[in-house]
Amino acid sequence: MRTFEYVRALDIDDAVAAVTADPDSSFLAGGTTQLDLMKDGVLVPSKLVDITRLPVRGVAVNDGILHIGALTTMEELAADPSVRAGLPFVREALLLGASVQLRNMATIGGNLLQRTRCRYFRDPAVAACNKREPGTGCAAMNGSNRMHAILGTSEHCIATHPSDLAVALVAADAEVQTRGAELRRSIPLTDFYYQPGDTPDKENVLEHGELITGVDVPLLPAKARSHYLKVRDRASYEFALTSSAVALVVEDATISYARIALGGVGTLPWRAHAAEQILHGAPTTGETFRRAAEAAVEGARTRPGNAFKVELAKRTVVRALETVSGPTT
Fold first, then answer.
1. pLDDT band with cut points at 50, 70 and 90 for residue 211
2. Which of 30, 110, 153, 264 could bridge across to 105 with cysteines, CB 3.0–4.6 Å?
3. What does each C-alpha distance from 66 to 33, 99, 109, 140, 216 come to in angstroms?
């Protein structure tokens, strides 16, 4: 690991100013992924600004909105009774997203900003990674791409977004609250991430020095049932091959509210709007769920190693919908 300067921020303005002033600096919170990437030489900040003492931690509910401080840990959020009662699929995503040890360190803001697990991105010995070094190519295209994305890809990058929590929060219409040197923003999570396009190194809309201070999540309707289903190679400490966060309100065997997002298959947490449109007003039948699943993966672009994800993703969506809707006909 290269040497760096360490600074502990006294308040939010102090933290923002310190990072904004130095283009090679970054914030430090739980550091569960950041420090690994520094050890591997993928990240080489000249300065780390410790934000762990800032007053942006805790969970509260006001007017049907769950307010989450950015420094709240994954374990703290999963244990909150408001999440258990009003956003069950968010709690499931948290518990499936990491080991207990990591959940007690990793923060919510940091989870949303975690970097891809693509082996080519995380290995500086491999030159071909447009996300790490723009213009060098994408080794995953013709390399090992079993874990890579099939939705939102480009000819420059097929790296998969790794977060389980972000998938559930995208489905729940969450908004990210930020502070910058001269701005405060509330950004829908569906607008927060960039698809790789021609600039895969630009992953989100944050400006340098802009700090995530919290996340606001509307509680699900009282009659909603939700579920986060994660399919992976082993039962613990593994990233998703496919996953789906779903929430439904069903009245008289007809769907009146639907939310669907997919993980493990997209370059960002993938909100399946077309699938939701098919579900709204439709009966809770196997045929409805299969049509929605087809729409959820429409436009998928595969490589030889990850073509299986198309069918697996469809089955994941169907199973999750069956779980929240009860028996189908």
1. very high
2. 30
3. 26, 24, 15, 39, 6
Give 229-324's CATH code, choosing from 3.30.390.50, 3.40.50.300, 3.20.20.30, 3.60.20.10: 3.30.390.50
Average pLDDT over residues 160-166: 98
Per-residue pLDDT band at 237 (split at 50, 70, 90) = confident
Alpha-helical regions (H) of the chain = 12-20, 34-39, 74-79, 81-86, 88-97, 100-103, 108-112, 165-171, 273-279, 286-296, 308-325
Q: What is the pLDDT of residues 67-78, one digit of tens each?
A: 999 999 999 999
**What architecture (CATH level 2) is domain 1-51?**
2-Layer Sandwich (3.30)
Supply the pTM of this predicted model: 0.96
Asked if 112 and 176 count as a contact pair (C-beta separation under 8 A), the reply is yes
